[in-house]
From TrEMBL, chain A:
The lineage of its organism: Eukaryota, Metazoa, Chordata, Craniata, Vertebrata. It comes from Ailuropoda melanoleuca. GO terms for molecular function: GTPase activator activity; guanyl-nucleotide exchange factor activity; protein kinase binding; protein kinase inhibitor activity. This is SMCR8-C9orf72 complex subunit. Residues 686-698 have a biased composition (Polar residues). It is found in: Cytoplasm.
TrEMBL record, chain B:
GO terms for biological process: autophagosome-lysosome fusion; axon extension; endocytosis; late endosome to lysosome transport; positive regulation of macroautophagy; regulation of actin filament organization; regulation of autophagosome assembly; regulation of protein localization. This is C9orf72-SMCR8 complex subunit. The gene is C9orf72. InterPro entries: C9orf72. GO terms for molecular function: GTPase activator activity; guanyl-nucleotide exchange factor activity; small GTPase binding.
């Protein structure tokens, strides 16, 4: 295995023994350190802090013909960024590279000066002593006053991390090429303008000289020319020559785009890219070819002036500034692009690399990536655009994004556009967004999720006084849970205990040690049940009966969008006998009241036609239980006030929902074991990962804060697991509270656990103050609900009480949660209150990776071909269902309620897969009628 | 262009190298900064081709170019700096390693450069690290050689009273030649046999109807798991090129596109040499059914390696990153020290100078069985074959698996970053990390740590390095009694 020459040496033992110790030791400069971090304080992060500057920045330098290399400006223009770093010295270093040797100016043997359109050069170099490394992009601008008409400039991206520059070389090169093209386009325009002015001056001078010469000729009657006349004639000849030269220069500069484009075919891909940008810039700003000429001809009126015969010497003249060399518009556009680059590559390399890998991998998962990824498609489009396609604002994208993506072309159009581009720099967006967050959500907002709307709420620190380990008690379980664990309805119902009931009873008695929940009472005490959580409908009796037969232990109410292809598939499976549908059932009654607002002929439970449902196998068993399917016209997002007209006997707000007797401690007042970390979290901003392609709403800042608040939630609320389970399994969670800021903050935090229904909408409503309608449960899976004191809030609370058996309710004011029991293994791994994760951003990453794993399981379950179809004609549905259950348990390793999570995600995947137009519909409205528990701190 | 370039110095020597395949390299040069004349080229290496790729004048111009500005060189002692040029105007890219050294009594600045056409930029960039690492090491050795020559010269001058500077000054060139040629060969072989950026899953084991169709289930699990535990660095050997390449492609599925471009398929008829620094490489056994791995080169690879034999279905792996890096550096130091102490040219001859110091005896048994089992790869393999082959389902599932791994790796880095306040404090809570990030299986932790090492180099050494170093020292001390 090991080659002989390598091994032989190790056998020369005698030589080692004879090794003379008086030999001089190997000087350290010729050796390698034994340990990568042998020096004091060295670690994988220390190289980033070794330099004299605090973070990466961009430096523009010029090789001035008067003073030599000099720094011109930095981006960001903040002395704190480059600190004590010697910009003069570094400019000298980067500009001392003779990056080109192509002749520029007046070549020997040529009649006229010739402009040489030099390609940009890119150099990576460094100063290892200073710990500064740079990507340097050299470019040449034209200046009529300059020596050889050229002014060499360079733009350098300076970083302390050499690997970052090499690993991001192609991206840096592409982005800087855009900036360079912008500068050069502006410069050519300015140069052409300068030439035109000069030509006018020359023309005027020639006219003046000619006139003077003529006058002298006429005045001269001696028959010979005076020295003055000769001088004038020479001057005139010189001007004539100069005119021809300048005309030639103007012709050359005007012919630039065509010449470069012709030549580009021979160059490499990178050059092509650069020239693509050129052509993009040209075509974007000047749609037709003739506009190229306009670029150089549209000038304001100019008054020519006389040119003196002897021009000033170069050291007397003042060189043009960079802004003067380029058109102001292009110059500011370039600065915007450079700011974009600075932001794009800011941060630690590992975050840049991972975000690039993430994007590449997510592109391959278009089937599943809508579930937990934010606006992935938009992101990938951005990435694709940056790779090749000329950026054009897409109609479906938010304006800020499209502005940002299309930075150059937009800005090339007008100065006004440039302003927009600047505003679209993500940092600014974040700062500005806070102002808008209190704006009341309009209809448009309802259809699109904007996580940043709560930034200010997130800003508020969550403080508390109750430790996460404090025990909580389940004050009461519903009587039906104790007696009939799979139903939470009437106490008067006497049903013999089945073995299943006994098992569930044992569950209800258990102490959830991990959460320190103590069940104080499991007796079927009606008094302990909050009124609003009671089943007050006669139909509940039927529900119980039917429920007892339901092997799934759930009652499904489905209100779905019409999706014919799915409905057709479901027809066979959703044969709910009309006799089983009790019109007096709560939802049955509800369906009557819903008919008006829904504006469609609401289907009676027995009406199966057009019922949309999910894949057939999923609900085949439901005919054993109570099942109501009806269609909700989801196209009516507006809340219908008529739904508030409840009978008086239903207006029975519970103490849980309405009373404020319990100490009203806001979330902010809780002690948080990690609260000391929050200050630390803010210190990481300098190296905070910034997405290479800022992703609009889901910014890093948002993620960090959402993660931070989610972490606090799981530490403060021992019943976090069932709450998260509700979200993951598609059961709507209503967060009820009086203080909008606190509710919004928690809703934003919990939204990271909510599976999306489509790429375009997050089913989260941060704040609702009006009564909930059934369509809200279809549209939103996480709702922040305002608690308003009675009587104004009676409608709201009553609406909630109506649906409370089918939703989970987290009462922030009373620190109580009412939702089904959770006994799985997935959520504890996702949200362990003992976790030592310290920062919100880290926790967000952890959640993201766990949810990706979950998506993977759901994907497998959904698309595992042999699972959902019968193997042969005679195979019964039960066998198929058994196979599915076995797969979920054995292959995917899921236990108890975790199965429902994967099944719900699989339903979303199927629905999404079956939809022709993504994002146009919502999944079915499904109520799982499972017993709920009341958790209270 | 040539008419614009200054004529080459008559002193420039040139070595033409005959390569079997296409050479993406135009030339390599060794230049130095002359205190009077400025940058000057000492030697040129160029592939032997019928068509002249670059004239000597052009090569000289470009080589001089690399040292421009180095009069301002401000480097740490012993630093070997890398400069990278993309000169669109000339249509070339140049990679230069700049270093200071003593030669013939003068301390000067030197540059070893390789020149490629600009069209090869995307081909070259994934291989940049491999080339730079290898050239850096040869420079380290060459620098010692130069220094020793100087000493010898001074002695000779004193003894003989003669000037023999020029004669002695050439002798670093053979040493550089000894590495420049393999780098040329490597690039040439990569041009013809590198793994494509996009791999069709149909060409891999993951397209089988069921696990175990192409190779044994346990073997596949071990191979992928160990491959991921060794940072995606594997050597696949076998007697059948087809079989070897199928495993190479399968393993490459778990790499990024850039890493795939730094991997090499097996040659069908004759075997390539082992190349240090590639991620995955397929190698064909000889007629006797064996393949010899050069110990030094395996040790000098940036990551530990998994050795997979498809003939006998064995999977062996090198120790984890921190141990590998530690061993690698000890070996390097020993080698350099031996160079330093060598007293004759025979001792310094490259093929025989295997060196060690008295305190270091490398463990030759570097490939061990895979000890740590994981749940991540096992679950993946158990599940992926449930999906129907031939559709894009398995590719999607694989992408999800890789996404999970990358996200876990990033979470792990962030976790350590938070816990140690960016390395200011030592990391103490590995147990908590395992629980918090659901990495309790040792194999899972190894996989995620290996992935994290690639995006945050030095993480292993930071977490495990010091305790390991201490324990090794203790062991050494104990062994002396």
């Amino acid at each position: 295995m090991i080659s002989a020459p390598d091994v032989v040496a190790f056998t020369k033992e005698e030589e080692y023994e004879e090794e003379p110790y008086n030999e001089p030791a190997l000087p350290e400069e010729y050796s390698v350190p034994l340990f990568p971090f042998s020096s004091q304080g060295a670690n994988p992060w220390s190289k980033l802090s070794g330099a004299k500057f605090s973070r990466d920045f961009i430096l523009i330098s010029e090789f001035s013909e008067q003073v030599g290399p000099q720094p011109l400006l930095t981006i960001p223009n903040d002395t704190k960024v480059f600190g004590t770093f010697d910009l003069n010295y570094f400019s000298l270093r980067i500009m001392s590279v003779d990056y080109q040797a192509s002749f520029v100016g007046h070549p020997p043997g040529s009649a006229y000066p010739k402009l040489n359109f030099v390609e940009d050069s890119k150099v990576v170099l460094g100063d290892s002593k200073e710990g500064a490394f740079a990507y340097v992009h050299h470019l040449t601008l034209y200046d009529l006053e300059a020596r050889g008409f050229v002014r060499p400039f360079c733009m350098a991206y300076i970083s302390a991390d050499q690997h970052k520059i090499m690993q991001q070389f192609q991206e840096l090169s592409a982005e800087f090429s855009k900036a360079s093209e912008c500068l050069k386009t502006g410069n050519r325009k300015a140069f052409a303008g300068e030439l035109e002015k000069k030509l006018k001056d020359l023309d005027y001078t020639r006219t003046v000289l000619h006139t003077e010469t003529e006058i002298q000729k006429k005045a001269n009657d001696k028959g010979f020319y005076s020295s003055q006349a000769i001088e004038k004639a020479n001057e005139l000849a010189s001007v004539e020559k100069s005119i021809i030269e300048h005309q030639d220069l103007l012709k050359q500069i005007r012919s630039y785009p065509h010449r470069k484009l012709k030549g580009s075919a021979l160059c490499s891909g990178e050059t092509e890219h650069t020239q693509d940008q050129t052509s993009q810039a040209a075509t974007t700003s000047h749609p037709d070819e003739s506009a190229d000429t306009d670029l150089y001809t549209c000038r304001p009126a100019y008054t020519p002036k006389l040119i003196k015969a002897k021009s000033t010497k170069c050291f007397d003249k003042k060189l043009k500034t960079l802004e003067e060399l380029c058109d102001t518009e292009y110059f500011t556009q370039t600065l915007a692009q450079l700011s974009h680059i600075e932001h794009m590559f800011r941060g630690d390399l590992c975050y840049l690399l991972t975000s690039q890998i993430d994007r590449a991998l997510l592109k391959q998962q278009h089937i599943t990536n809508f579930l937990f990824e934010d606006f992935v498609e938009v992101d990938s489009r951005v990435a694709e655009k940056q790779e090749s396609v000329p950026p054009k604002p897409g109609p479906g994208r938010p304006p800020s994004r499209s502005l940002e993506e299309c930075l150059i072309p937009q800005v090339l159009i007008s100065v006004g556009s440039y302003k927009s581009s600047v505003e679209s720099v993500p940092i600014k967006m974040e700062q500005e967004l806070g102002d808008e967050e209190y704006k009341e959500a309009d209809v448009a907002e309802m259809s699109s999720f904007d996580p940043q709307e709560n930034l200010d709420y997130l800003d508020m620190d969550m403080k508390g006084s109750i430790s996460s380990g404090e025990s909580i008690e389940v004050l009461g379980t519903e009587k039906s849970t104790a007696v009939l664990p799979e139903s939470d309805s009437q106490a008067s119902l006497t049903v013999p205990l089945s073995p299943q009931v006994v098992r569930s009873k044992a569950v209800s008695h258990r102490t959830i040690s991990e959460d320190s929940i103590e069940v104080l009472s499991t007796c079927p005490s009606e008094a302990l049940i909050p009124e609003d959580f009671k089943a007050s409908y006669p139909s509940a009796i039927n529900e119980e009966e039917s429920y007892a037969d339901d092997s799934e232990g759930a009652i499904h109410f489905q209100a779905s969008v019409c999706a014919p292809e799915l409905g057709e598939a479901e027809e066979g499976g959703l044969e709910t006998p009309p006799s089983q549908i009790d019109s007096s059932c709560c939802i049955g009654k509800e369906s009557d009241s819903l008919r008006v607002p829904l504006s469609t002929p609401a289907h009676t439970p027995s009406d199966q036609d057009g019922v949309v449902s999910i894949p057939p196998q999923r609900y085949r068993q439901k005919d054993q239980g109570f099942h109501v399917d009806f269609v909700v016209e989801n196209a009516n997002p507006l809340r219908d006030s008529s739904s508030e007209g409840f009978p008086a006997d239903e207006l029975d707000p519970s103490h849980l929902l309405a009373s404020r007797d319990v100490s009203k401690t806001s979330l902010d007042n809780y002690s948080d074991s990690a609260s000391n970390m929050s200050s630390l979290a803010s210190t990481s901003s300098d190296r905070t990962p910034s997405s290479a392609h800022p992703t609009g709403p889901s910014s890093e800042r948002h993620k960090k804060r959402a993660g931070q608040n989610a972490l606090k939630f799981i530490r403060q609320y021992p019943f976090a697991h069932p709450a998260i389970y509700s979200l993951l399994s598609g059961r709507t969670l209503v967060v009820l509270g009086e203080d909008e800021a606190i509710v919004r903050k928690l809703v934003t935090a919990l939204s990271i656990f909510v599976p999306n229904h489509s790429r375009y909408a997050k089913p989260v409503k941060h704040w609702v103050s009006s009564p909930l309608h059934i369509t809200d449960f279809q549209r939103w899976k996480l709702i922040g609900l305002q608690r308003v004191a009675a009587p104004a809030g009676a409608g709201t609370l009553h609406a909630l009480s109506r649906y409370s058996r089918y939703t989970s309710v987290l009462d922030l004011d009373n620190k109580a949660l009412r939702c089904p029991l959770y006994r799985g293994a997935l959520v504890p791994r996702l949200a362990d209150h003992r976790t030592q994760i310290k920062r919100g951003s880290t926790y967000y990453l952890h959640v993201q990776s766990m949810l990706t794993q979950l998506c993977s399981k759901a994907f497998l379950y959904t698309f595992c071909h042999h699972l959902h179809l019968p193997a042969h004609d005679k195979e019964t549905e039960e066998v198929v269902a058994g196979r599915q259950a076995s797969f979920l348990k054995l292959t995917l390793g899921l236990v108890n309620e975790d199965i429902k999570v994967v099944q719900y995600l699989a339903e979303l995947l199927k629905l999404r897969y079956a939809q022709d137009a993504p994002g146009t519909g919502h999944p079915m409205l499904r109520f799982d009628y499972v017993p709920s528990f009341l958790y209270k701190i | 262009m040539s008419n614009l370039c200054p004529p080459p110095s008559p002193a420039v020597a040139k070595t033409e190298i005959a390569l079997s395949g296409e050479s993406p390299l135009l030339a390599a040069t060794f230049a130095y900064w002359d205190n009077i004349l400025g940058p000057r080229v000492r030697h040129i290496w160029a592939p032997k081709t019928e068509q002249l790729l670059l004239s000597d004048g052009e090569i000289t111009f470009l080589a001089n170019h690399t040292l421009n500005g180095e009069i301002l060189r401000n480097a740490e002692s012993g630093a070997i700096d890398v400069k990278f040029f993309v000169l669109s105007e000339k249509g070339v890219i140049i990679v230069s390693l700049i270093f200071d050294g003593n030669w013939n009594g003068d301390r000067s600045t030197y540059g070893l450069s390789i020149i490629l056409p600009q069209t090869e930029l995307s081909f070259y960039l994934p291989l940049h690290r491999v080339c730079v690492d290898r050239l850096t090491h040869i420079i380290r050795k060459g620098r010692i050689w130069m220094h020793k020559e100087r000493q010898e010269n001074v002695q000779k001058i004193v003894l003989e009273g003669t000037e023999r500077m020029e004669d002695q000054g050439q002798s670093i060139i053979p040493m550089l030649t000894g590495e420049v040629i393999p780098v040329m060969e490597l690039l040439s072989s990569m041009k013809s046999h590198s793994v494509p950026e996009e791999i069709d899953i149909a060409d891999t084991v993951l397209n089988d109807d069921d696990i175990g169709d192409s190779c044994h289930e346990g073997f596949l699990l071990n191979a992928i798991s160990s491959h991921l535990q060794t940072c995606g660095c594997s050597v696949v050997v076998g007697s059948s090129a087809e079989k070897v390449n199928k495993i190479v492609r399968t393993l490459c599925l778990f790499l990024t596109p850039a890493e795939r471009k730094c991997s090499r398929l097996c040659e069908a008829e004759s075997s390539f040499k082992y190349e240090s620094g590639l991620f995955v490489q397929g190698l064909l056994k000889d007629s006797t059914g064996s393949f010899v791995l050069p110990f030094r080169q395996v040790m000098y690879a940036p990551y530990p390696t998994t050795h997979i034999d498809v003939d006998v279905n064995t999977v062996k792996q090198m120790p984890p990153c921190h141990e590998h890096i530690y061993n690698q550096r000890r070996y390097m130091r020993s080698e350099l020290t031996a160079f330093w102490r060598a007293t004759s040219e025979e001792d310094m001859a490259q093929d025989t100078i295997i060196c060690t110091d008295e305190s270091f005896t490398p463990d030759l048994n570097i490939f061990q069985d895979v000890l740590h089992r994981d749940t991540l790869v096992k679950a993946f393999l158990d599940q992926v074959f449930h999906l129907k082959p031939g559709l894009s389902l398995r590719s999607t599932f694989l992408a999800q698996f890789l996404l999970v791994l990358h996200r876990k790796a990033l979470t792990l880095i962030k976790y350590i970053e938070d816990d140690t306040q960016k390395g200011k404090k030592p990391f103490k809570s590995l147990r908590n990390l395992k629980i918090d990030l659901d990495l309790t299986a040792e194999g899972d932790l190894n996989i995620i740590m290996a992935l994290a090492e690639k995006i945050k180099p030095g993480l292993h050494s930071f977490i495990f390095g010091r305790p390991f170093y201490t324990s090794v020292q203790e062991r050494d001390v104990l062994m002396t009694f």
